[in-house]
Write a structure and sequence with these properties.
single chain, 384 residues, alpha/beta, Four Helix Bundle (Hemerythrin (Met), subunit A), Rossmann fold, 2 domains, 13 helices, binds guanosine-5'-triphosphate, binds magnesium ion
Length: 384
């Protein structure tokens, strides 16, 4: 081989070596700016992100997903996702906004102003008598203070409605040292079982030991429906045989709860028509027996469907007489055009609305706040 060829080959080998030394390690360092790859670890590759429930902690869904919405899962934080009352009251507000806008648009206060306010309140299902009472009071104040601005008139109306609703004690009985028992009663399909589930999810989520009792032994699927809620929020669950005496199932459920030192026993009951005297007698018995059981019955919550409006009042009277109702849960306010029923319930029955249902999920049960409610109902602001 020619010496110049040998020198050329040695030169090429040296150049390739130097290039390989410099470039290859740089390529290897390139990803250093990116996060290091996660260790190959089966747990680390779990589809459940950090901070979520472990898969094995999530109870299996055993029935139609619609029956218990996924947001009813125990890790749903009720406070964090509290629905905005104003958003959920859109339908109720739409009943009155046209009238209120017209009142404001008129520029002064005259007889048509009062007529429109009257119609707005009656259409919202406040009730004719209560509407007159409210407007008489507002009118007296408007006259006494020489108010001529319709906006100010609406402010007086809002303040009046809020003050009326604030008169009653709406707080749920605080859970004490022993086992509190809450019964839920009402006509068919108003949302009793769902409300037991939502309450259970709330209190179990707050760390309380909760027992749900399927006191509806009449409807075949009722116990399964409640059991799903219990599974999802980690509450205990007690049921009896189908067709069993509901008062004995409730008694057993309370006894079981007391034996386990539970904080709260939530007893569901079957829906019943208020004019079926045998069924109302059965409910009276449930109440009596619950009182005899070892826990303390501290709430009897009457569940009313807001979409039935004034018609719900006569049902409510009978249930109140039969079971000493301590508070109303007004469900389905999200789909009701009759938001004014809240005022009618409190004034005609003398029972505070303690909770309102704004949807089907666990977090859609909120404490009733009068000022927030009146603002949301009588808001003439932009709804777009
Ligand atoms: N939109 C809406 N739906 C609700 C609310 N509360 C309950 N529901 C729905 O109303 C329906 C009836 O609810 P249930 O809880 O089964 O009613 P119930 O009173 O236990 O019915 P019975 O046991 O048959 O008397 C279900 O589809 C619920 O999801 C609410 O606040 N808003
Ligand atoms: Mg039910």
């Amino acid at each position: 081989m020619e010496p110049w060829l040998l020198i050329l080959i040695i030169g090429i080998v040296l150049v390739v070596g130097v290039v390989a030394f410099v470039v290859v390690p740089r390529r290897g360092r390139g990803p250093a700016d990116e996060p290091p790859p996660r260790p190959v670890d089966r747990d680390a590759q779990s589809p459940v992100p950090e901070g979520s429930l472990l898969v094995e902690d999530v109870p299996e869904t055993v029935a139609e997903p619609d029956a218990v919405p996924t947001s009813a899962e125990p890790d749903a934080a009720p406070q964090a996702v509290r629905p905005r009352l104003r958003d959920r009251l859109a339908k109720a507000r739409s009943t009155v906004t046209g009238y209120l806008a017209s009142v404001v648009g008129r520029g002064g206060i005259d007889q048509p102003t009062w007529d429109e306010l009257e119609e707005a309140l009656i259409r919202a299902d406040v009730g004719a008598t209560l509407t007159s009472e409210i407007l008489d009071g507002v009118r007296a104040q408007v006259d006494a203070e020489g108010i001529s601005d319709p906006e100010e008139l609406l402010a007086v109306l809002r303040a009046d409605l809020t003050a009326r609703l604030e008169m009653a004690d709406r707080t749920l009985h605080p859970l004490g040292d022993g086992t509190d028992v809450w019964l839920l009663v009402g006509v068919n399909g108003v949302g009793k079982t769902t409300t037991v589930g939502k309450l259970g999810a709330r209190f179990a989520g707050e760390g309380h030991d909760v027992v749900m009792v399927a006191g509806d032994t009449f409807r075949a699927a009722a116990a399964e429906q409640l059991e799903m809620w219990a599974d999802r929020c980690g509450a205990r669950f007690v049921r009896g045989a189908e067709g069993a005496d509901p008062s004995s199932v409730v008694f057993d459920g309370i006894e079981a709860g007391v034996a386990k030192n539970a904080d709260l026993v939530l007893a569901d009951t079957a829906g019943r028509l208020h004019n079926k005297s045998n069924l109302m007698d059965e409910l009276r018995k449930v109440r009596r027996v619950a009182d005899k059981a070892p826990g303390n019955v501290t709430e009897v919550l009457l569940v009313l469907d807001a979409t039935t409006g004034q018609n719900g009042l006569s049902q409510a009277r009978v249930f109140t007489e039969a079971t000493d109702v301590t508070g109303v849960v007004l469900t389905k306010l999200d789909g009701s055009a009759k938001g004014g029923i809240v005022l009618a319930i409190q004034s005609e029955l003398g029972i505070p609305v303690k909770l309102v249902g704004l949807g089907e999920s666990a977090e859609d049960l909120i404490d009733f706040e009068p000022a927030e409610f009146v603002e949301a109902l009588l808001d003439v602001g932009d709804d777009a």
